[in-house]
Amino acid sequence: MTKKRVTKIDPKEKLSPYLDHETNQKKKFKAKAKVSASLSKLHSERKSALFKRLGLVVGISVVAILGLGYYISPLANVKSIQINGENDLPIREVVKTADIKASDKVIDHLFNKNSIDHKLSSKYSEIKNINIQVKNFNNLVLNIDEYHTIGYVKNAKGYRKILSHGKLGTQVIPWSKVSPSKPVFVGYNHELSLQETLHLFNSLPVSFQSQIKLLSGNTRRKSQVIFLMKNGNVVIGNVSTLKSKLKYYNKIKTKVGKNTLIDLEVGAFSRPLTPSEKRAYGLT
Questions:
Q1: What digits encode the pLDDT tens for the residues 178-198?
Q2: Per UniProt, what is the membrane topology (predicted)?
């Protein structure tokens, strides 16, 4: 009796086509799902971007329409002008020089600031620069930044400011507007002599400057300088040597009383002022 030959069959081998098919189908399904999700996400992003662009266009259009509406309306016309920062300048004249009219548009002057700045600073030496602001849609505010005042020079009509950049103020002001903390230059009929004394004054220590009440140009010699101090004393010096001799002044002033002349022009000595000198310096 012959033995039947038994052939072994691997079940996995017989089922592998089916298993592979099922696996491939799952992969295809997942791939389709991924593609579908990607397309859906892309569609959503495009839709969101479209709405953003549309919103931006609408927003810009609304702002442009509102801006144009404001510009052509009477609300954009200059209603009032306010000047801040310089009380000695004539307001009407400043406005006229700036060429600002009630029919002008506020926004035009905001963008024309450099032109206004140039017009005003060219005419008024007091003005360093200006800043323009708008309040309540159509109220124009000119904020004036002025040069620092270091003293005053007296002339026949009143007093003019001596400004930090070396120029004189354009306005003549009364004694009531002169700051008592600043020195007054008197007897300077020529601007050259004033500039020379001013140069000397600026070179002196601040501690000494603050003690000076008056500088007199009525001197015997061009090289001579005369200071009336706030404590009632008078200091006489030489333009070229005064700065180096101030150390003697500090020693002398502690030993003398009021209404004393301290002479630092040649040497360094002091004496009481005569009655005529007191009258000449306004100390009586």
A1: 999 999 999 887 777 888 889
A2: Single-pass type II membrane protein
Instruction: Report the DSSP beta bridge partners of residue 272.
Output: 260
Q: What pLDDT is recorded for position 238?
A: 92
Distance CA 87, CA 100 (A): 19
Structure tokens at 202: 């600026």
pTM, whole model, 2 decimals? 0.72
For the chain, the 3-state helix, strand and coil shares in percent, each to the nearest 5, are: 45, 25, 35
228-233-239-243 Cα dihedral, nearest 10 degrees: -120
Q: Which of 144, 123, 195 is nearest to 165 (CA)?
A: 195
DSSP secondary structure, 182-230, as one string? S-EEES--SHHHHHHHHHHHHHS-HHHHTTEEEEE---SSTTEEEEEET
Number of H helices, E strands in the chain: 8, 11
